[in-house]
Every structure is written in C-alpha cells, then in structure tokens.
Amino acid sequence: MKKYSVSEAAELLEVDRATVYRWLRKKLVPSLIEEVVAGVRVTYWTEKELAKVTEYKATHYCGKGIDRRTGKKAKQKKA
Q1: CATH class for the region spanning 3-60
Q2: pTM of the model
C-alpha cells in the first residue's frame, strides 16, 4: 500500500499544495491519516483516499480562477 503526502498528491493532481490544503480545510476531501514514526508526525493518504481526491478534482476543479490584479481569467502555466 503506497502512501501519498499532500505534496505528492498535489504534484500527481497538477494543482498547488495550497489548493489541496484548502480542500482539506473545507472538508471537501478525505482527511489525512496521521502516524508517529520515530517521534515525527507523518500525514498521508492511501491509494484509496487519493482516488477520492482525484474524483473530487475531476468533478469540481476548473483550474485557475480570476486574476486579482487584472480581473481577467488567470493564465495557465505552460509545462
């Protein structure tokens, strides 16, 4: 069973980490599992929870919104 951190999940989903944390804060996606390993708190999703996050993104995420400075649709970064 592979475990995915917020950073790994954000990279796989091609969204910013802040977006993933916003979804967590608003309880739109499953909460992270917490473990203490060698005295360090580790948080992660399993593949099952990551599938739910991926499903949420597919149905609700439309990409970048309005640019605060210009008031127009924000430009997408080119890969």
Answers
A1: mainly alpha
A2: 0.76
